[in-house]
Design goal:
Elements lengths: L1 H32 L3 H5 L12 H14 L3 E8 L5 E7 L2 H5 L1 H13 L5 H10 L2 E7 L7 H15 L3 H9 E6 L4 H14 L31 H13 L4 E8 L6 E3 L3 E4 L5 H20 L5 E3 L4 E2 L14 E8 L7 E3 L27 E3 L1 H21 L1 H21 L4 E4 L6 H13 L5 E3 L3 E3 L2 E3 L4 E4 L5 H8 L26 H5 L4 E3 L10 E3 L16 E4 L4 H13 L3 E4 L3 E3 L2 E3 L4 E4 L5 H4 L7 E3 L7 E3 L5 E4 L6 H12 L5 E3 L9 H4 L2 E4 L4 H6 L22 H13 L3 E5 L8 E8 L2 E7 L1 E3 L1 H6 L5 E9 L12 E7 L4 E3 L6 E8 L6 E3 L12 E8 L2 E6 L13 H8 L2
Parallel strand pairs: 3-4, 3-5, 5-10, 6-8, 7-9, 27-28, 27-29, 29-30, 30-40
Antiparallel strand pairs: 1-2, 2-4, 6-10, 11-12, 13-17, 13-18, 14-17, 14-19, 15-16, 20-24, 20-25, 21-24, 21-26, 22-23, 31-32, 33-36, 34-35, 34-37, 34-38, 37-39, 39-40
Helix pairs in contact: 3-7, 5-6, 5-13, 6-13, 7-12, 8-12, 11-12
Length: about 900
C-alpha cells in the first residue's frame, strides 16, 4: 500500500512538473513572440531623426493583436483617402474576452435612465472604465502616435502589479492615428528633407485630403470620414466614459498642458464633467512632476466653450479632455534658450512658477524622445486615475444620464420642432440625419397640434430634450450667447479660443421652434422617424424632366451632377406658378428619364415631375470650367472649398498661384475661384502685414506667388470676359487701383470701386471672432436666386466693404449689406453698430468680365450651408 501511495505521489509530482513546465514554456514562448518596438521598426521610437509611417504603425499593432491575449484591434472606418482606421483595446485577458458584454454595459450606463439602483450597482460591479485616447489628429504633431508602440508594449508585457490592476479595472481604448493620410504625408515630407538645409521645414499643402489642421473643427458637422469614425465610437457604439485627445503646441512655452481648461467653459455642461477634469488633471500633473517632468501646466490658454473638436463628447456625458505637448521639428531636436521661454494667452501672465505651472522647465535641448516621455507618463497617470475611481466614474455616467433625461422632462426647453415645410427642405433632411449620427433620437408628429396660434403639422420633426445627450441637443439647436468672463471685475474680457457660433438650424437656414411651455400637448403625439431620413418620392407616371427649386441646396447638387452627365439643363428666369406648380426664379429644369437613376438618387426631396414643357422664360445652363487657386501654405479654406465642390459634383482644376503665369486662362477656364488667402501669399508667396514680413518655413520651391505678371494676367482674363469669385482676405486682390496690359503696346490703369474698411471699424471697437451676423440681400440679382431677404453669414475678423461711383468700363452692384441694428444672430460681437449699413457682398464688372466678392467665407468649414447658394449661383453667372 505504501508502495502504491509512493507511486501515485511520484506520478502526481511528475504531472505537476510537466504541467508547470508546459505553462512556463507557453508563457516564455508567448513573451518571445511579442516583438519589441525596436525589433519591428528597426529603431527605438523617439530616436532623433526617425519616424515610422501609418502602415508600419498598424502592422506592429496587428502583430500585438495576433500574439497577445491582452489586445484586440477593430476596424472603425476609413480615411478620406481610403486608409483603414482602427481602434485598439488593451486590457486584461478576461476583459478582452468579454468586450461585447462590457460594450453592452457601457451602453446601459450611458443611455438607460430607468436602471434600478440594484441594476446600476450590478453594472458598476461588472463594468470597466473605457478610456478612449485619440492621437495625432494634427499630423505635424507626431509624438502621440510615435509613442503608442512603447505604451502598448509596456502595458501588455509588464508584470507590475499596479499596471495589472489598472488593466483589470480599465480598458485602454486608442485610435492609433486620427488622420492616417496626413501622417504619411508628414513622414514622407520629413524624410525627403531630413539632413538637408530644410530639415524640419513645413509641409506644403494640407496634411489631409481636404481640411488639414481644421479636422478637429469637424466634430459638429461630421463632414469627413475620419471624424465620423471617431465620433461614432462615443456617440453610438462603445460609449467610453473618459476620453482624451492628444495634441502638440508651440515650442517656447510650457512643455505639457493637461485639462482642466481655462474659462470660458460651456454652460450646458454638467458641473460634474468639469470637476472630473480637475480630478484627472490634478493627479496627472502630480504624477508627471514626481517623475521629474517639468513644465506641466493646466488651466492655461485653452478654453472649452466651443464644441468643434473631439471634446464634443463632453456634451454627450463623457469626461473629455485635452493634452498638448511642446513640439520639436517633427523628429529633429531643437535648443531653447531659457530667456526664449514665454507664456502666451490666458492662465499665465509670465513664464514663472505659478499655481498653473508649479515646476517650470528651464530650457535646453528638447527632443522627440522628451515629448514621448511626457506622452507615456500622462497616459499611465490617466489610466491609474481611472482605475482608482472606477466605480465612481461608472456611477457618474449613469447618474448623469438620469439627470439629463429628468432635466429634459422638467426644465424648459422641452422640445425643438422643425416644420416639414422649410425654405430649404433638403437641409432639414441633412440635419435630421446628422443628429442621428450624433446619437440623438428624432421623432415626427403623428397629428396636428395647435399651440399659441401656431399649428404644428403631422410629419413635422420633433426632438424631445428628455434624452441622455440633452446637453448636445440644446447646444446644437439654440442660438449661441457667448458667456462673457473677465480677468478682473469690470476688467478685460477673456477672449474665446475659437469660434462662437455653431447653431445647426441657423447655420443651415432651417426654421425651428423651441417649446418652453405646454409640453403636455405633445405627450404621446410623436413616433420615431425612419433613418436614413429622406423625403424623395419616385414618380409613378412617365416624365421627361424634373423641375428643381432654387430654394434647395440639394437641387444644385443634382444640377451639377446632371451637367457633368451631359444632361440638358435650363434655368427659369422668373417666378413660375401654373397648373398647381410653383417655382421661384432661378429654379432648374433638368431633362432626363427614369433611366437616369443615378441623377435622381442625388435628391433627398421630391421634385416636380414634368411630362411637358412649361411656359416660362429660361436660359441654358452650362457647366463652367473652374480653376481653383490654392496656395502652398496650409490652405485649409481652399481644402474646404474642394470638399464642398466634390460633394456638390462641381468639377474644378487646382492651380497654385505660381502656375497662373504659364496657364492658358482664357483658353482653359471660364471662372477662377480664389478662396480665403492673404494677397501677399497669392502674389509674392509670403506673408506680409503693414508693419512686418513673416519668415516662411517652407522649402524655397514653394515660396512662389503669381507675381505681378500673373496678377496682371488674372485681371486681363477678367477684362476679356472671364469671371472670378473671391472671399475674405482674397478680396484684397480686387480692391482699388489696378494695372493691366491690354496688348504689347497698351497698358491701362483702372479702379475697382470697392475697398475694405474693416481696419477703421476695428479701431472704433468692432470685433467678431467667429459669429453669425445678419445681412440683407438684393433678391433681384442672379447671385441671390433661392435666397430669402435676410441670411446669417459667418463673419470672423473679415473684411467690410464700401463702394463708390465707377468710371469707364467698370461697374458694381451691392448685393448684401449689414442692417443698421440687430446684426448679431448667434455668437459674440462687440460694437456691432459699427457695421450698420456697410457692404458685405459686391458684384463687379470690368470689360466683358465679372467679379463677385464676399466679405465672409460662404462655405465656412462646410458648416454654413445657409450661404452655399450664394456661391453656387455665382458659379453659374
Amino acid at each position: 500500500m505504501k508502495f502504491l501511495n509512493h507511486q501515485i505521489f511520484n506520478l502526481f509530482v511528475v504531472m505537476i512538473v510537466v504541467i508547470t513546465t508546459s505553462v512556463l514554456n507557453t508563457s516564455f514562448v508567448t513573451a518571445q513572440k511579442i516583438p519589441t518596438p525596436t525589433e519591428h521598426f528597426g529603431f527605438y521610437p523617439g530616436t532623433d531623426k526617425m519616424l515610422f509611417d501609418y502602415e508600419n504603425l498598424i502592422s506592429y499593432l496587428k502583430k500585438l493583436d495576433e500574439v497577445s491575449e491582452n489586445v484586440a484591434m477593430k476596424k472603425i472606418g476609413h480615411s478620406p483617402m481610403g486608409k483603414p482606421m482602427y481602434v485598439m483595446f488593451i486590457s486584461s485577458a478576461k476583459n478582452i474576452q468579454n468586450l461585447d458584454k462590457l460594450k453592452e454595459i457601457n451602453k446601459e450606463l450611458a443611455l438607460n435612465p430607468n436602471l434600478t439602483q440594484k441594476e446600476q450597482k450590478e453594472y458598476i460591479h461588472q463594468g470597466k472604465v473605457f478610456f478612449l485616447f485619440t492621437l495625432s489628429m494634427h499630423s505635424n504633431e507626431v509624438a502621440p502616435s510615435q509613442a503608442l508602440p512603447l505604451i502598448a508594449y509596456e502595458l501588455i508585457t509588464s508584470a507590475d502589479d499596479a499596471i495589472q490592476k489598472q488593466l483589470n479595472d480599465v480598458v485602454y481604448m486608442v485610435v492609433p492615428n486620427s488622420n492616417p493620410d496626413g501622417m504619411n504625408m508628414i513622414v514622407n515630407h520629413y524624410n525627403k528633407y531630413k539632413d538637408t538645409k530644410y530639415d524640419g521645414s513645413s509641409m506644403p499643402g494640407v496634411y489631409h485630403k481636404y481640411v488639414g489642421h481644421d479636422n478637429n473643427r469637424d466634430f459638429v458637422a461630421l463632414t469627413q470620414t475620419d471624424t465620423k469614425a471617431i465620433s461614432n465610437l462615443f456617440s453610438n457604439e462603445w460609449f467610453p466614459q473618459v476620453m482624451v485627445e492628444k495634441h502638440q503646441m508651440g515650442s517656447t512655452g510650457p512643455r505639457f498642458y493637461v485639462d482642466p481648461p481655462h474659462d470660458p467653459i460651456a454652460e450646458n455642461i454638467d458641473a460634474g464633467i468639469w470637476n472630473w477634469m480637475k480630478v484627472f488633471g490634478s493627479r496627472t500633473v502630480t504624477k508627471m512632476t514626481e517623475e521629474g517632468l517639468a513644465g506641466v501646466t493646466h488651466s492655461y490658454l485653452y478654453d472649452d466653450y466651443w464644441p468643434g473638436a473631439t471634446a464634443t463628447c463632453i456634451w454627450k456625458n463623457v469626461i473629455g479632455m485635452l493634452t498638448e505637448a511642446a513640439s520639436v521639428k517633427y523628429a529633429t531636436p531643437i535648443y531653447i534658450e531659457p530667456n526664449e521661454l514665454q507664456a502666451s494667452g490666458k492662465g499665465m501672465g509670465e513664464y514663472k512658477k505659478s499655481i498653473n505651472m508649479p515646476e517650470p522647465w528651464e530650457g535646453g535641448w528638447w527632443r522627440l524622445s522628451d515629448l514621448m516621455k511626457y506622452e507615456i507618463s500622462s497616459t499611465k497617470a490617466y489610466l491609474e486615475t481611472a482605475s482608482i475611481h472606477k466605480n465612481e466614474i461608472l456611477k457618474f455616467r449613469n447618474d448623469l444620464c438620469k439627470k439629463e433625461v429628468e432635466k429634459g422632462r422638467t426644465e424648459a426647453p422641452y422640445y425643438y420642432i422643425f416644420p416639414i415645410e422649410q425654405h430649404d427642405q433638403s437641409e432639414l433632411v441633412h440635419l435630421v440625419n446628422l443628429l442621428n449620427e450624433h446619437g440623438i433620437k428624432i421623432y415626427e408628429l403623428k397629428k396636428n397640434i395647435l399651440i399659441d396660434q401656431t399649428t404644428f403639422s403631422k410629419g413635422d420633426i420633433i426632438i424631445p430634450l428628455a434624452q441622455p445627450f440633452r446637453a448636445f441637443i440644446k447646444e446644437m439647436l439654440e442660438s449661441q450667447v457667448f458667456p462673457a468672463r473677465h480677468y478682473t471685475p469690470g476688467g478685460e474680457m477673456i477672449k474665446p479660443y475659437d469660434i462662437t457660433s455653431w447653431s445647426l438650424p441657423l447655420h443651415k437656414g432651417v426654421k425651428v421652434f423651441e417649446i418652453n411651455q405646454k409640453k403636455e400637448l405633445f405627450e404621446n403625439s410623436y413616433q420615431l422617424v425612419d433613418i436614413p431620413y429622406n423625403l424623395f418620392t419616385p414618380s409613378a407616371q412617365e416624365f421627361n424632366a424634373v423641375l428643381l427649386t432654387s430654394n434647395y441646396n440639394n437641387s444644385y447638387q443634382a444640377v451639377f451632377a446632371a451637367l457633368k452627365n451631359g444632361n440638358k439643363v435650363e434655368q427659369i428666369l422668373e417666378n413660375y406658378e401654373q397648373d398647381g406648380i410653383k417655382a421661384p426664379k432661378g429654379s432648374f429644369v433638368v431633362y432626363l428619364s427614369k433611366n437616369d437613376e443615378a441623377l435622381l438618387n442625388q435628391l433627398n426631396f421630391s421634385p416636380v415631375y414634368l411630362d411637358h414643357n412649361i411656359n416660362v422664360k429660361t436660359k441654358p445652363v452650362k457647366l463652367p470650367r473652374i480653376a481653383l487657386i490654392e496656395s502652398y501654405f496650409h490652405p485649409m479654406d481652399a481644402g474646404w472649398t474642394r470638399y464642398v465642390f466634390d460633394t456638390y459634383n462641381i468639377p474644378f482644376t487646382v492651380l497654385n498661384p505660381d502656375e497662373i503665369k504659364e496657364a492658358k486662362l482664357s483658353k482653359d477656364f471660364d471662372l477662377i475661384v480664389i478662396p480665403d488667402e492673404q494677397k501677399s501669399v497669392l502674389i509674392d508667396g509670403e506673408y506680409k502685414s503693414e508693419d512686418r514680413q513673416y519668415f516662411m518655413k517652407y522649402p524655397p520651391e514653394y515660396l512662389k506667388g503669381m507675381g505681378n505678371e500673373g496678377y496682371e494676367k488674372l485681371l486681363k482674363f477678367i477684362h476679356d470676359g472671364g469671371k472670378a469669385i473671391a472671399w475674405r482676405n482674397a478680396t484684397a486682390l480686387f480692391c482699388g487701383m489696378q494695372n493691366i496690359e491690354l496688348d504689347k503696346n497698351k497698358k491701362e490703369t483702372f479702379e475697382f470701386p470697392v475697398k475694405d474698411i474693416s481696419g477703421g471699424l476695428i479701431k472704433a471697437g468692432f470685433s467678431s471672432p467667429g459669429s453669425l451676423l445678419r445681412i440683407r440681400l438684393d433678391t433681384n440679382h442672379p447671385i441671390t436666386y433661392g435666397m430669402q431677404e435676410e441670411v446669417g453669414v459667418f463673419h470672423r475678423s473679415s473684411p467690410v466693404f464700401t463702394t463708390w461711383q465707377p468710371y469707364f468700363d467698370v461697374d458694381r452692384r451691392v448685393i448684401g449689406i449689414f442692417p443698421e441694428r440687430e446684426i448679431l444672430i448667434s455668437g459674440y460681437a462687440d460694437n456691432e453698430k459699427e457695421l450698420g449699413n456697410k457692404t458685405s457682398i459686391v458684384w463687379l464688372k470690368k470689360g466683358k468680365g465679372q467679379v463677385v466678392l464676399f466679405s465672409f467665407n460662404p462655405q465656412f468649414r462646410a458648416s454654413s450651408p445657409a450661404t452655399y447658394k450664394l456661391l453656387f449661383n455665382s458659379l453659374l453667372l
